[in-house]
Design goal:
heterodimer, A: 476 residues, mainly alpha, 19 helices, globular, B: 108 residues, alpha+beta, Alpha-Beta Plaits, four-stranded antiparallel β-sheet, two-stranded antiparallel ribbon, 27% helix, 36% strand
Chain lengths: 476, 108
């Protein structure tokens, strides 16, 4: 006879296993039944069975496989029921026989192909963020299916009523089923837009968590960690996509500021005034490493890589005064061509002002779009042929990053050390790469330039303007 | 929340396939977005501070089973999740000792 406390502890242990395994189980099941809604129901059935059995019997040696096998049995029960139903329906018309095909893949294959599970996980990410769904639905479905969050947790995280979230998830699953959205990784033609949707969802979740105030439910800041975790998962699933690494880098570096972003009375502290000694150097390093992974891949930098490069500039400055504003201005310039928006323009204007003084901003902002010299207003000469195609994401190593990593060879008995030693951050390959960013690319739409500069002009100093923009620099 | 999993020395010598298995385990934790840092630890220098006097002494000092030889820093959503991962880790390693401790800060 177990006490209530023991049962509660056992339930927490089951839930922990669920958190670790649920996305893979749902993904694997969806790969078989080709319906994410049904896959989640089957997985939930398995969870209920685990909650009933594990507290008494103990957690099985391979809990993930146990959950999958249980879900499989539930699925087979359903298929049999459907077959019986199908037998009756067959009397109604032979065309319905087409519906009675078996599952396209065997469960046992799914169980055994642990290494290939990533493909199903990736499919699950893409379908959860499908453009047929509203942004809110994509977010809720992603957190539910990939994060393993309960409806109640999602509701708390987004300060929404639980029934609203439940309806949103239910509708999303129905939409995917009704429209027979295929459970697949999109084709190469579709992939950029579909990937952008996945990245947007993760970043929206992250920002929701980042905007949490002191006293908010703990679930809100936890959203940052969840988005970051899913970003890291995605980076391993799609290692050849620079923007995935860019988003991970951006989130890692921004998350590094979480401990410093609120004052004791719970008010947000602008970036320039944050205690940089409280920035989490581990996350900064991880962000730099992700940025370097993006840089090693070919292609021009996308918006997330550029924003991460901007965040890296801030992370590298030991004091606000040491910030390389010129580089940031150049990165914002490149960002305005990719993602013109008032906020990006304003941040660019601030960066230009910080680099060269307020009058320069006014000059650069009033230049006509036809003026080819406009992009280079405050930057170095836009001629660095050796750096082309170039971008500025190369983070400079932190002062103590030259210290050699612990060598596994010295610790033959150390089980954890069998992993490859971390690669030290390389020295910048091209310090002036920022100067060539956006060069050769016509300036994008800039109808907001005047607004941005106008907002800036009204202030008494560049730093005051910067304080007003605060933490939004790099988070636009 | 972060947890530091540590492994003490003094266990039986690692069996032949352990390193490959460990590599896969580490890779899996990385792919799951859980592992923040990991490494093996050399025998270090012992520090004693007493009445303003700092004494540094090269090791070894302790029984090897009290000595931490490797660590993994993980980011998980609950203590139970850390314990479950530790269970999986030790199931793979076999006999030995270690600890799982929550890390406070810098996240607060």
């Amino acid at each position: 006879m177990t006490s209530a406390a023991e049962t509660a502890a056992a339930h927490r242990a089951v839930e922990a296993v669920w958190r670790i395994e649920s996305a893979r189980i749902i993904a694997g099941l969806a790969g078989v039944v080709r319906d994410v809604g049904l896959a989640e129901e089957l997985a939930q059935d398995a969870l209920v069975a685990a909650l009933e059995q594990w507290p008494a019997d103990g957690i099985p040696p391979n809990p993930g496989a146990w959950l999958m096998v249980t879900a499989k049995h539930r699925a087979i029960d359903r298929i049999r029921r459907n077959e019986r139903l199908g037998g009756k329906l067959r009397l109604l018309g032979p065309e319905l026989e087409a519906e009675q095909q078996g599952p396209p893949r065997e469960f046992d294959a799914v169980l055994n192909e642990d290494e290939n599970m990533g493909d199903d996980l990736l499919r699950l990410m893409f379908i959860s963020c499908h453009p047929l769904l509203s942004t809110e639905a994509r977010i809720a479905l992603t957190l539910r299916l990939l994060g393993g969050l309960t409806t109640e947790e999602i509701a708390r995280g987004f300060l929404a009523p639980e029934p609203t979230i439940a309806k949103r998830i239910g509708r999303a699953k129905n939409t995917l089923a009704d429209k027979q959205v295929p459970f697949e990784v999109p084709s190469s033609a579709e992939r950029p837009a579909r990937l952008a949707s996945v990245l947007e969802v993760l970043y929206l979740v992250f920002n929701e968590g980042y905007s949490a105030m002191a006293g908010d439910d703990w679930m809100r800041p936890a959203l940052c960690n969840e988005a970051l975790r899913l970003g890291r998962v995605l980076a391993e699933l799609m290692p050849a996509e620079p923007e995935v690494h860019g988003l991970v880098a951006l989130m890692e570096i921004q998350a590094s500021r979480l401990p410093a972003r609120l004052s004791p009375n719970g008010l947000p502290i602008p970036l320039a005034e944050q205690n940089r000694g409280r920035w989490d150097q581990l996350l900064i390093r991880r962000g730099f490493a992700a940025l370097l992974r993006a840089e090693r891949l070919s292609g021009p930098p996308g918006p997330y890589v550029l924003q991460a490069a901007i965040a890296a500039c801030h992370a590298q400055a030991h004091t606000a005064a040491e910030t390389d504003w010129q580089r940031i201005a150049t990165l914002y310039q490149a960002l305005t061509t990719l993602q013109p928006s008032p906020v990006v323009e304003l941040n660019r204007a601030v960066a230009v002002a910080m680099a060269s003084g307020p009058s320069t901003v006014w000059r650069s902002s009033t230049a006509s779009p036809q003026n080819p010299r406009w992009p280079a207003t405050t930057t170095c000469p836009a001629s660095a042929p050796t750096c082309s195609p170039s971008w500025a994401a190369t983070p400079r190593p932190l002062p103590n990053s030259a210290a050699p990593p612990p060598s596994p060879a010295t610790c033959p008995n150390a089980p954890f050390s069998s992993t490859a030693p971390p690669t030290p951050l390389p020295a910048p390959r091209c310090a002036d790469q920022a100067a060539t960013l956006g060069a050769g690319r016509p300036p994008g739409r800039r109808q907001n330039v005047r607004d941005g500069a106008g907002a800036f002009r009204g202030t008494t100093s560049a730093s005051a303007a910067y304080r007003r923009v605060g933490v939004r620099v790099g988070r636009a | 929340m972060r947890f530091l999993m540590t492994v003490n020395g003094g266990g039986p010598p690692p069996y032949e396939h352990l390193f490959a298995e460990m590599g896969r385990f580490v890779e899996k934790l990385t792919r799951a977005g859980v592992l923040l840092a990991t490494g093996g630890l050399d025998r270090g220098t012992h520090v004693t501070a007493s009445g303003g006097t700092i004494t540094l002494t090269d090791g070894p000092f302790t029984e090897s089973k009290e000595e931490i030889v490797s660590f993994a820093l993980i980011e998980v959503r609950s203590k139970e999740e850390a314990l479950e991962l530790a269970r999986r880790f030790w199931k793979m390693v076999g006999d030995g000792e270690g600890d799982i401790r929550q890390v406070h800060g810098p996240e607060g």
